[in-house]
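W.,

You were right to be curious about this one. When I first looked at the sequence I had no strong expectations either way, so I just let the prediction run and decided to look at it fresh. Below is the sequence, 71 residues in total, followed by the output.
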Amino acid sequence: MLSEKFCQCLKLSKTPAYKLAWEAGIHPNTLSKIVNGYLRSKDNDPRLLKIGALLGLKPSEVFALGKEVES
């Protein structure tokens, strides 16, 4: 699961998300589906870690590991 910080940084980035996606080797539609919860990403997915690095995030800030979302 992606962290809230990752999603916020992606939305607030000056570089469009589709450009970050292409640079990381992921299709922009796939990135959108992951961010919006339609697809699950594997923990420590290297493509998402690369996008995180492009956004200036540490690897530990990309994924919300161990944090359960209450319904």
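Here's what jumped out at me. The chain has a mean pLDDT of 90. And, maybe more interesting for your project: The longest helix spans residues 4-12.

Coffee later to discuss?

I.
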